[in-house]
Amino acid sequence: MSEAQHAPEGQVIEGRYRVVSRIADGGMATVYQAVDERLGRTVAIKIMHTQLAQGPQRDQFVERFHREARSAAAIANPHIVQVYDTGEFNGLAYLVMEYVHGVNLRYEMNQQVTFPVRETLRIIGETLEGLAAAHQVHVVHRDIKPENIMLNDRGRVQITDFGLAKVASAATLSSTGMLLGTAAYLAPEMIQHNQATPQGDLYSVGIMAWEMLAGKVPFTADNPVTLVFKHVHEDVPSVALQCPGIDPAVARFIGHLTQRSVQARPADAGAVIE
């Protein structure tokens, strides 16, 4: 079913949001650029896919949309994409978000392959600042990966997609959540014990940093099952093996974030920044 059927350019949602163009397609939703005609500003609207809205797990996906709205709304930080509004239109859940002029980190990785240490640390540092604000209000993102790290046109980081986010105390990973998370960045405890922790977000950030410096992730496999087993049973090798001559302090810092044991990592993003 074509997504254009439910939000063609020019359509006005709730008498307020005029759809301008399609920005991106994800597994759950399509994101459009739109104009909030009441406030006269550009926004991004994420609209649930029709087949999910008509499927057996509809309620679960709608709840994920509402959770994303609540989680992002609880965090005030320039490194988090703001969520302004949420609702339903033609039976489809939607989210209205800040429009980020820019690209995601995956796009930059495809362009650059590897990043200088200084730029890596700046991007990772801003990601940690955004996560520190989330962790402070007990929100764990659970799906940190380059696709969810937006870089605006000033190069600043803005984290998006809090759709899997959970309040840390209530954090377990459903089987659907497991499939939605990206195997290459998932922390061992998430895979093994369904345990979502602030330290799990840090592990994902560490894997991302490793990839930015080395030009590839530390573990690769032909299928996600083999890949998650590697995260559970093998230590992430030092990035210095892949990048000889790197500052040992940088390699140690990334090593600290990517420890296999939860307890061996810093407590949360705020602790890393300090």
**Mind describing the biggest β-sheet?**
6 strands, antiparallel
What is the oligomer described by this structure? single chain
Which sequence of strands runs across the widest sheet? Answer: 1-2-3-4-6-5
Can you give the mean pLDDT? 88
The proportion of residues forming helix, as a percent range, comes to 25-40%
List the helices and strands and how they pair.
Elements: E1 12-13, E2 17-25, E3 29-36, E4 41-48, H1 50-53, H2 58-73, E5 83-89, E6 92-98, E7 102-104, H3 105-112, H4 117-136, E8 139-140, E9 149-152, E10 157-159, E11 166-167, H5 175-180, H6 188-193, H7 198-214, H8 224-233, H9 248-257, H10 269-273
Antiparallel strand pairs: 1-2, 2-3, 3-4, 4-6, 5-6, 7-9, 8-11, 9-10
Descriptive account of the structure:
- The protein is α+β, with helices and mostly antiparallel strands and about 270 residues long.
- It is about 35% helix and about 20% strand.
- The chain has ten helices and eleven strands.
- The strands form three sheets. The chain has a six-stranded antiparallel beta sheet. Strands 7-9-10 form a three-stranded antiparallel beta sheet. A two-stranded antiparallel ribbon has the order 8-11.
- Helix 7 (about 200-215) packs antiparallel against helix 9.
- The longest helix has 20 residues, at about 115-135.
- The protein is globular.
- The model is unreliable at about 1-5 and about 170-180 (pLDDT under 50).
